Amino acid sequence: MIGQDFFGWTGKVLRVDLGTGAQDVLRLPEAVYRDYLGGKGLGGYLLRDFATLSPDDPALPLILAVGPLNATIAPTSGRCHLTTRSPLTGAVADSSAGGRLGTELARAGWDAVVIVGRAERPTGLEIDNDTVRLVDASALQGCDTHEVFARLRLRRPKGSIAATGPAADTGCLFASLIVDTHHAAGRCGLGRVAGLKNLKYLAVHGTGRRKVADLPTLKVAREDILRLTAASPALMGQHGFSCFGTGSIFDLMDSRRMMPTDNFARTRFPGAENLNAHAYKQRYQPRRHGCQGCHVLCKKIAADGRSLPEFETMSHFTALIGNTDLELVMQAGDLCGRLGLDTISAGSTLACYREISGEELSGARVLELLTGMGTGTGPGAELANGSAKYAAAQGRPELSMSVKGLELPAYDPRGAYGMALAYATSTRGGCHLRAYPISHEILRKPVATDRFSFSGKARIVKIAEDANACVDSLIACKFLFFAASLEEYARAFSAVTGVAATAHDLLLVGERVDYQERLMNARNGFAARHDDLPPRFFAEEGTSGPNLPIPPVPREDFLACRAAYYRIRGLTPDGLPTRETAERLGLPWPASLGGA
Amino acid sequence: MITLLAKYAAKLTATGLCAPGDVLLAALDDELGWSQVVESSDPRRGLMEEIFAGMSISALLLARPAGVYQAVMAELARQALADGSRSITPGDCETRTFLHDLPVVDSLHAVVIIQALRQRKGCVILHEGEAFVAAFGSVSPEQAYVTFSSMCFASFVAYFADHLRTLRAGAMTDQRRAAFARSTALLQDDRSDRPDLLPGPFEDEDAAREAMIQAGRSTVEYGLVDSYFGNISYRLGDTILISQTGSSLDELGACIDPCRMDGSSCAGLTASSEYSAHKAVYEAELAQNGARAILHGHPRFSVILSLDCPRLDCPKLGECHRACDTARAVVDATCGMAVPIVPGEVGTGPFGLCNTLPQALTGTSGEKRGAIVYGHGLFTLGAVDFRDAFASLMDVEHFCRAEYFRRVGELGPR
Asked: What does R_g of chain B's alpha carbons equal in angstroms?
């Protein structure tokens, strides 16, 4: 167990049963912290014994975890990681949330909060340092998230709040948790799991400080990281995230001809140049805003208080659904935030509906369908289960642009083959962040790779998945790794915890964390057939341009690369974990997987 | 992947950093590939296979630097092992930003090398009096290539700058002086010929791109950069054409971003990290001399001279790269050339060179318009094309080299 003289971690995990009201403090062996760090790793560790439970089983935990860097001066260490099993996909569900949630939880003295059970009525969980209360939140039932925040802030002006919207209560499988008004644990339906537990909100305020073993060395590591950040055009350049938000990628996706258009039928959207981040900046005069502990401040808030859309939202609510109205994107993004909908899944599901139905979507219709998704009534309610279930019900499963049932983000895989592989191998389904090959295939960091080649991509994707699993466990923001690397963050980690570790030690932790998720997915029936892209990408060209052909992804090359990935990852040819690799990584072999 | 391995191995020998046969590059996807045929009896093969087995990497380089790079790296490694630091800490900007320091080990054993590579991107190995370098990449062999050539550049700058500093401190020893003589004897003469660059002004994008590609290639061929880094830009109306971040100056090809000066597109997200500085220079020049070309290289003696300062008791020592407020310049009184030296870090941070360079550069006049950023490199201006910018880059570097040895001579046998 972790004692009083430990740094970085407190050694305390809070377990709350919403059904019984019971509260326990779990004390995990010290080795768990060294092997899994925190955040995503710790969340997976706390989930794995329950990973096959149905999302509506009260015993399925919803876990919020921080890492050793939270609430320290390590750059971008203010995030919080949420983990459970996805009601949308059946696979592992996790999401990194910004805002203040991670910092407050760490300052309150908790490494994680494990929420189980189902409350009889809508309930709030309030944590103030050691004091934990369950609060009747019936009055908030049906309220949108903005109203929830407004009401709670009257009573709790300090600290962080994560809240669900109507989508979580009414059964939307891609309902999100909204954090501090402008941030989200967006993907995989984490909000729906909260809704199934009748958890309306979580409010945390902490006044403690995390103990740091070697502050001078941490300051040096911080300086190294900040210096690298300043040298990054993508983060701090005139066209970068700090100036324009993540929407700054929009123009690149247009010029590289990989902007998903018309439900991924095309890869270039006429008029995109009028829908870019600059257009939003001119029209909405945003201010900079960021997560606690971040100097990049990539979040942009319009003068009227609405969040400017992130890149994915910008792209999916325009090109993907055939919309050229900037204000509609703002309204749709705002509505998703209020209802608690994941914008990627919502936009992609709309696009799927549009293609199958043949209906052109007016602005009013887009908002009507989103409202239906988020309230479970009226037009759009049938879309609340996501594009995969909707398309299957319509007899057109191939038109759901998803992997493992999770809708794809706004990078067309025909324009970046590493991205194609990474979409397929992601443990949570269609996700760009697990390996983030856009970093080298588009943004040229750490160096540029050939985006139309699978050569070398199997190992690159595997290493990047490990690295990002570690980043989500430390915790830091993955965007920073356009500039810095685990080399610098390993020094920050050692300075905080006093535990000697190199970048490669941390990579090994990341590998363990990733493999732990594959073991859970295997127990839930996932195999190679799920590590695949929709057939459209192998059969249809993108929108080619002069000297820039966008052919279909070569299927045989993709399969060969995936097979190589499996060998490198230590999986069977069917993409399943092996006992040998699990043992090498110190992971227990689940009995249900038999003797593989 | 094999093509990339062969390409970067060939680049290292072409630039004189390694002798042919003294560089071996390997890449691992699910199988290992090599930059050349390597016999199973070659001890490097077993060593590199062991390192691959002990690390999660994609590419690995093992090379023996040649010529003056061998001499200075071996000398610095000997010092690092002798004083117990087991690390070389150059003061140049590239190292401070991207490499931090260069670990030194004293054995060609895999376990020892792995231990160092788990800390940093590359390490120096002193083996039987000779320096070797191991460097890795997680994405591409290009990373290992860049790390190796940056380590050569950093060691060169560190060694020659340290020699001058030691002379100023009056701490020179006969042993060091002898080593310095051996190293300088290995220096190759500067090229005196000039490339035949395209004349401007360029009024369409294709012509401007062609001129940039040609000037970038020449900058590398004339050894005025480390690796292939540096950047280059040209103003075409209200658009700045600029090399992309991390692009090879000798292979610019499609790696040039058009950036609208009104900021109405973010397509320049991949533009050089110095775009802000370039833009500020052009904006100021529009109201002054109207220069349309900027060339930025890392000529070695310009960087070394920027690190040389007689104020050994300056209270800001150690912060020179970002806090120096002394007006400094490289001055050639014979031709009236005055090249200011300013502090500034890469990019746009509070100490970024975008805050210092534009004012210094646009404040210059005459035929040779340039400014040196402390420990980093030289930026030069061209009125309508890259001919004068390139000439300034060469001439300033030649002067700095001569001036360096003049100062060494002046400080004498201390």
From this structure: 21
B132 and B254, same domain (yes or no): no
Residues of B in contact with A492 (CB under 8 A): none
Q: Model confidence over B100-131: pLDDT tens digits? A: 999 999 999 999 999 999 999 999 999 999 99
Q: In degrees rounded to 5, what are phi and psi of residue B330?
A: -95, 120
Give which of B8, B32, B121, B139 to mutate to test A binding, by max A Cβ within 10 Å: B139
A142 neighbors A166 (Cβ within 8 angstroms)? yes
Mutate to test the interface with A, among B247, B265, B275 (most CBs of A within 10 A): B265
Phi, psi of A167 (to 5 degrees): -60, -40
pLDDT at position B94 over 70: yes
Res. A303 pLDDT band, cuts 50 70 90 = very high
**What ipTM did this prediction achieve?**
0.93
Dist CA A471 CA A506 (whole Å): 9
Contact A91, A126 (CB under 8 A): no
Buried b / exposed e along B338-361 (16+ C-beta atoms within 10 A): bbbbbbbbbbbbebbbbbbbbebb
Tell me the average pLDDT across A414-437: 97
DSSP B99: I
Last residue of a domain, one of B150, B185, B220: B185
User: Which of B30, B138, B267 comes nearest A255 by C-beta?
Assistant: B267
The answer to whether residue B90 sits within a structural domain is yes
8 A C-beta contact, residue A487 and residue A495:
no
Neighbours of A144 (CB within 10 A): 22
- Say whether pLDDT at A556 is over 60: yes
Q: Which domain holds residue B21?
A: 2-185
Confirm or reject contact between B96 and chain A (CB < 8 A).
yes
- What is the per-residue pLDDT across A163-173, written as a single tens digit (0 to 9) for each? 999 999 999 99
Provide the domain count of chain B. Answer: 2
Choose among B191, B185, B295, B183: nearest CA to B235. B295
**What percentage of chain A has pLDDT greater than the value 70?**
99
A13-205 is classed CATH 3.80.30.20 = no
Q: Kindly tell me the sign of the dihedral angle through the C-alpha atoms of A239, A244, A246, A250.
A: negative
Sign of the Cα torsion A335, A337, A343, A345 reads negative
Return the ∠ at Cα B364 (arms to B358 and B365), rounded to 5°: 140
Smallest Cβ distance to A449: which of B55, B120, B140? B140
CA dihedral A380, A386, A392, A396 (to 10 degrees): 80
Residue B261's closest chain A neighbor by CA?
A238
pLDDT of residue A351: 98
Q: Which two tokens stand for residue A347?
A: 């936009």
A596 CB-near residues (< 8 Å, 6+ apart): A572, A576, A577, A578, A579
A252–chain B nearest CA distance, Å:
5
DSSP β-ladder status, A80-85 and A92-97? antiparallel
